[in-house]
Amino acid sequence: MKVCEEVGSYDAKTKLPEILRKVAKGSYFTITNRGKPVADLIPTRSTNRKRTLEAIEDILKIQGQTVSDEVLKASIENGRK
């Protein structure tokens, strides 16, 4: 996990495209207003889930199988035990 960076609300507004590119690569930001934290900008979980599904599907294609949501959920639950 990358270190959380603080960015002021004005800088966040003016540098939003740059900040979003960094977030897409895994960076985390805390947006401040007058030095006080007001929001956290973090990578979306849906992107991580999509990447996970794609990786599993790639592996299963090699084996000639497909993955369903039920199989994925069961795999996640088994990993938590």
Structural class: alpha+beta
Quaternary structure state of the chains depicted: single chain
**Rg, alpha carbons:** 18 Å
Largest sheet: 3 strands, mixed
For the biggest β-sheet, the strand order reads: 1-2-3
Number of helices: 4
- The residue-averaged pLDDT reads 84
Order of helices and strands: EHHEEHH
Portion in beta strands: 15-25%
Strand runs, count: 3
Low-confidence parts lasting 5 or more residues at pLDDT below 50? Answer: none
- Estimate percent helicity: 55-70%
Molecular shape: elongated
Amino- and carboxy-terminal Cα gap: 23 Å
Supply the key terms:
81 residues, 3 strands, alpha+beta
Written description of the protein model:
- The structure is a single chain.
- The chain has 81 residues and is of the alpha+beta class.
- Helices cover 56% and strands 21% of the residues.
- The protein contains 4 helices and 3 strands, in the order E-H-H-E-E-H-H.
- It has helices spanning 9-14, 16-24, 45-63, 69-79; strands at residues 4-8, 28-33, 36-41.
- It has a 3-stranded mixed β-sheet.
- Strand 2 (28-33) and strand 3 (36-41) form a beta hairpin.
- It is elongated.
What's the SSE blueprint?
Blueprint: E1 4-8, H1 9-14, H2 16-24, E2 28-33, E3 36-41, H3 45-63, H4 69-79
Parallel strand pairs: 1-2
Antiparallel strand pairs: 2-3
Précis, in short:
This protein has helices at residues 9-14, 16-24, 45-63, 69-79; strands spanning 4-8, 28-33, 36-41. Helices cover 56% and strands 21% of the residues.
